[in-house]
Give the backbone structure.
Amino acid sequence: MDTIKGIKGVKDILPEETPRWRFIEDAARRWALCYGYQEIRIPIFELTALFARSIGAETDIVEKEMYTFPDRDGTSLTLRPEGTAGTVRAFIEHNRVADPLPQKYFYIGPMFRHERPQAGRLRQFHQFGAESFGTSDPRADIEIIALLWRLLSDLSLPELTLEINSLGSSGDRAAYKPILLKFLSQQKSLLCANCRRRMETNPLRVLDCKVADCRAATESAPRLTNHLSPEARTHFDHVLAGLTSIGIPYRLNPRLVRGLDYYCLTSFEITSTQLGAQNAVGAGGRYDGLVETLGGPSVPAVGFALGLERVSLMLPEASMPSSHQVLYYVASFGDHGTKLGLVLLDELRRVGISAHCDYRASTLKAHLRQADRSRCRYAILLGDDEATRGSVILRNLESKAQEELPLAGLSSLLKSRTTSS
Ligand code: HAM
């Protein structure tokens, strides 16, 4: 019979890889809590309108990448392509604005985008995101960038660059658009078909195009940062000065225009040359208008999301603590030994000591082979001879050193050794 395969761009994370994922997620949680962010768990699917309205109907995500399907009653639903929209929806729906501000949330979970799969780009991928609601102070922007930067530095990710830009206020962008369009129409023949279309729908995105000819053609395009209102300029200057004061290096990137429409003022990406074409590890920015766009009050906000597959690709092996998944292999054999082995295995686990046994093995030799494969640190040998003596042999599987220990009270003895080592 044919086997049923997983979906293209949707990966299994196998047991060999999960310690790496847990390590990254634990670090993310620890840093988020340290900065005062609390975990929120939002649904995997929402009404399609939520994403269309927040991310923008004319963005690549909404136009081409969403997994959208009708519910049984015909309502259009979508698997979340990102976490900001759902977090804002929850913030409004639960009237969190009535609670003391700022409200700071983080989330970790799968997101879904129908993109062309390649290294670091999947159709089901995972993000760690953080969102801070309630203050327009540039220190909130600095805090959110610092959280991301400190986490990535803690994980020792190599060759990181923080790229930053200001997208100004919506008024600034409205005033800049005709200036940019005038420039782009002079270059139109040099632009790719996608950019020519974008000129009509979202001209700022042309600046972000990765096609070499488009980049060359827009090299001398007028810069939005030269057309900022005094308020937006001051905000940006404060963010940059704050980053310098806490020792976070950045590179100004006037081309940085995010692929989601809700941003204003600060926008940023952290990239790494280690990642190849998909070089953004994490990205975010300020989105002061989004709560209102989704029907809530006017609440300024800023946030980021980090792509966990990309972190996993870059995480140096040396950053990971070496760990034995299971500590003890119980090698019990012979009639009497096997019976006592069953009880010992249960006792060890009940006191919280990880223990394992391959029930197919019935001789010492077979057990020792399985113990070596199991990557346990110790084997406990318990045959009929040991059973008669009321003892076990504890064998260090690396050094092969052995010692005889009494069977009675063994689990408490090993527990005390584990906690004191
Ligand atoms: P984004 O730039 O679309 O922003 O995604 C953030 C990160 O998610 C990217 O830098 C990348 O590492 C990862 N990512 C995106 N798409 C994929 C994919 N197909 N496969 C693997 N990784 C991917 C957002 O999602 C915004 N919600 C960020 C934000 C939060 N802004 C404010 N708050």
Remarks:
- Residues 82-84, 113, 115, 120-122, 125, 127, 129, 131, 259-260, 280-285, 287, 303-305, 307, 309-310 surround histidyl-adenosine monophosphate (CB under 6 Å).
